[in-house]
Design brief:
The protein is an all-alpha fold and 74 residues long. The chain has two domains: 39 residues; 34 residues, no CATH class. It is built from two helices and no strands.
Length: 74
């Protein structure tokens, strides 16, 4: 019984792998684009060492105003 040459299958496998790769790249670009449009939220993390006094409070409030922060969480 004659066997089929492996070359057509190799070409088909190569083409399928390339199409799968292009599909995954397109899917990733689409997901990043939709995520950047819906997620505008960000967080600003500031570290405090020591006691929180009036100067520290003013520092946090001025930083929040400069970055248009709507809520400061303790």
């Amino acid at each position: 019984m004659p066997t089929l040459p492996a070359r057509p299958y190799r070409k088909m496998a190569f083409v399928l792998c390339m199409l799968l790769g292009l599909l995954m790249l397109g899917w990733q670009a689409l997901a990043q684009n939709s995520q950047s449009q819906t997620s505008q939220d960000s967080a600003l993390v500031m570290t405090i060492e020591g006691a929180i006094g009036p100067a520290t409070k003013d520092y946090f409030e001025s930083a929040a105003c400069a970055r248009q922060v709507t809520k400061i969480m303790p």
